[in-house]
Structures
1.
Amino acid sequence: MADFTLRIRRYDPESGEAPYWDEHTIDLEPHRSVLEGILQAKARFDGSIGIRCSCRAAICGSCGVRINGQPGLACHTHLDKALKGAKDGIIEVEPMGNMPIIKDLIVDMDAVHWKKVQRVTPWLINKLPVPEREYIVPHENMVDVTQSMACIQCGACVSDCLSMEVDPLFIGPAALAKAYRFAGDPRDAQQEERIRDLAEDPHGIYDCTHCFKCIEACPKGVAPMSQIMRLRRIATRTHHIVDRNNGERHESAFVTLVKDHGLLWEAELLPRSHGGDSFFGKFMPKAALELVDSLPVIAKGLLRRKVTLGKSILPPKDLPKDARAEITSIFEKVDDRGELRELNLYISGYDEDLEGAETPSASAAAGAQGQTSAESGQPGMTPEESPTR
Amino acid sequence: MKVAYWPGCVSRGFTPELHGSMEHIAPLLDLELVELDRASCCGAGVIAEHNQELADTLNARTFALAQQAGSELTMMNICSTCQGAQTECQERLDANAQYRALVNENLAEYGLEYEKGLKNKNLLWLLVEDYGLDELRKRVKRPLENLKVGPFYGCYIVRPTDRLGIDDDYPRDTYLGLLIEALGGTVIEYAGAQKCCGFPIITMNKEASLKQAGRHLGDAADADADCLVTPCPLCHLNLDLQQPLAERVMGRELNMPVLHLPQLIGLALGLEPKELGLGRHIVKPTSVIDWTTSVIAGVDDGSGALAASA
């Protein structure tokens, strides 16, 4: 047994009093969970501590909190590991973010999380006619949606979503991962309608800022951000949806510019993202409006010689001509082939972990629409040696 | 120390002062830069979103070029986004031999092949892990005394931690603080150090994007920072280039200079602000920081000229 001190954030909105910190020292074996620590503090010192929990085995998703600033399940975090992350030897436990507090560590999941999940029509809309017996679904397709099905709705990703922090209307990582679970299911009849709805929503798939917070937060390896990127890929590649949020225009402008010049040409990317993916894109009314809005910045940039006129008008010439040609030909070979070949590490794992077993083929991991992406995140799938060291 | 150097796109495009300042500090650190002048854009996550195999092929090409420059060389970048986007591709390539072979097939006709196991490190990681902060400290000519610096990492260099190899042995999410201290500066703690600058959605949701930048700049200002330092040029675009627009969205004055990592190092190594391109920023560091009393404390001559020349 060992002593651990917990610093718990207390707040009762109904009391009219300000939030405050409470400290309790509990006595438990180091491999016990933070949740058990909280429950001991509640039993021994203060029965009024508010915490929601049920299964205590990382299945029900009830006990999402922030421990030392990091979101996670209280029942899934060992006390000794939590102590390691503590700044001053005291384990700090707070309610999750981006959601209103009901009391202490209990947040209002209904007001935010569940409302957003409902927003994405979280059920299957059957293709008709419904077969007499079962639907026959390719194995790869079901494997492909497995990752999003691992979600236990704990709200850890919602808690830390940086887009939601500035735009509370953002549908958010958990609900969008759920959206992929159905949009990626071959039995669903309304993939295009689902995707169009999420692409046209000003707070939909193009509101994600790529910050990896949800991937880091998720205790189940769902990698919501990767599911959002798959939704975007279906929007642009499968259904060619040119959305009002410039999502498709931005992607196609980026890809075309790198294809043509080998490097990114920022001066051209911004207007094309608003006006359309061609040299004339910048003369479209939407691009012109954007240009006028940015004039003070552009003027200052030119004045400071940060950006030269030449650089704004001419494409980047940092690469030799033959290198540019090589890059263009890679685009033609790989991108214009039409077929998408992908590897999802969540499913395939790493070679090192599969010694003795058959190496999974790259294409086996690809879904029927090829909508897979790579995430690790599942316990036991971490490579022995990080490639980057 | 010799490295295969990948400068990136933005460091030569909209933030030319980044590539420029890197070239200025390299000789002072005895870093020999073998520039990968044929490599392509890393895709910044956008190309991977469009077509994963395409992004993996482009970056495998860059890795192969680095290995061609010298099999023992570490590849070095100066952009958080390059680090994150390239590591994502490398993780897949290194994890699965069959997939690697498939991608290498795309490169065969150019005589290129990526072999598993390249080391690819941001300047920040390289300095702390390979070069050593003690070695860096020895070369500091002008300690950044009294300069209060807020670190701003950029998402791609701190998350996901397992992919980026961040753990107790390699606490890479603390390196900026260590580096600022090694240069003699004071680290400012504020809420936004590891949050998102908002740049990826600037064309999709401009208001949310600028709110993110503005909030972090404001938090740093409230924590009494003189400036921010970032290893990410894309963050620099939203934090510095867009700062006037962020001020408009936030409805408050920010006036927070943002330095590129090599610029901060260069100042401590004794280089002139002008050589480091500090005058090219939208928020001129010289308009906020009194160089005569803070950064150049301890240097007798040229202090007045410094402030004037930038």
Note: Confidence is low (pLDDT under 50) at residues 355-388 of chain A.
2.
Amino acid sequence: MSFSLRLPQEFASQWKVKIRDRERLEPPHVTLIRAERSWRLNLRTGEFMDAFPGPQDVPEPLKRWVFMNWQVLCRAWDGAYPENKVFPTEEPHE
Amino acid sequence: MNEPLVIVEEKRSLRLLVPAGSTVSAGSPRELREALRRTGEGAVWVARAATLARWMSEVESGPKPRHRLLLLGKARAPERAFLRAFFKEVVAPDGELRMLPLPALMRVLSAEARGSLLVGAAVARLPRSVVLYRGNLDTLVVPFSWFSPRPGGPRPDFTDVEVIDHGQTLRLGAYEAATDALLYEFDPAWRRDARRRALSEDTSFGASLRRLRLQKGVRREDFGAVSARTLARIERGEVARPHAHTLGLIARRLGVEASVLGTF
């Protein structure tokens, strides 16, 4: 089953925050969905990935809720896509 | 720019489901004639088969050949055959094709990005595939094998197929696939557009570095002590904290200060 972040009541009827069983893999992200629009949030950088629709259209309290649950989201992604974890452990040593 | 959406209906209830001004609406044969005049080479139409066939007969005219039609409700065979003669594509719900609920359907059809959203899905047994209908009424055929389960995740159930999240997710039982993942893989034109958008919009450090490198005309293989693989991982954002020494080498090769690498 796809991962769906539990949301406060004020957002639960109109918004979904999901990591589905089949996503575009690069980069790891979570998708905020409202009706026919969606916002992809990069789990590595915490930045919105697309200019349209604008990140300013996401209510600040919802953004705060998502960031409060960041570790939960990263664990959900890593569990679903272990071959493309949010932060691979390997680092360069040139 | 989207082709226009044309709604043909007697009761004018569908137009209440879409944003004002986003459609051409025909509530009578006279308005249908006007809609035919106003729409150009291509348009997406939504109508009930009986109404549209009757009114087209009355005005003795039909759309240009590139127009596509989505029928609401069941259509009788003669009406469907009549309409097929005029439209490039006629999509009609039947026992196999499952459409979005009407309010969501109308929102998707009137959306600017309707080609990036799904409106319906059906399962074809031979070959074993899922046929997806997009908001612009293009189809996409995806083999069952593409829907691979994740570790510990559900298996796709092809007997329970539904488009949800206003066309942004395909549900197969408990299994869910993102529409953009489907389009990215099976529509090369959509993929090209998505890549172009992503590269121009991505404000991450890695994307900035990539833009700078390309602007300077430097290949990933040209960074000496920094391997092409490492550079690719930094550009993709896979390295959380690149070493200062590594960044210094990259900056020197690109002829800039390390502190400005993320500003391009």
Note: Chain B has a mean pLDDT of 90.
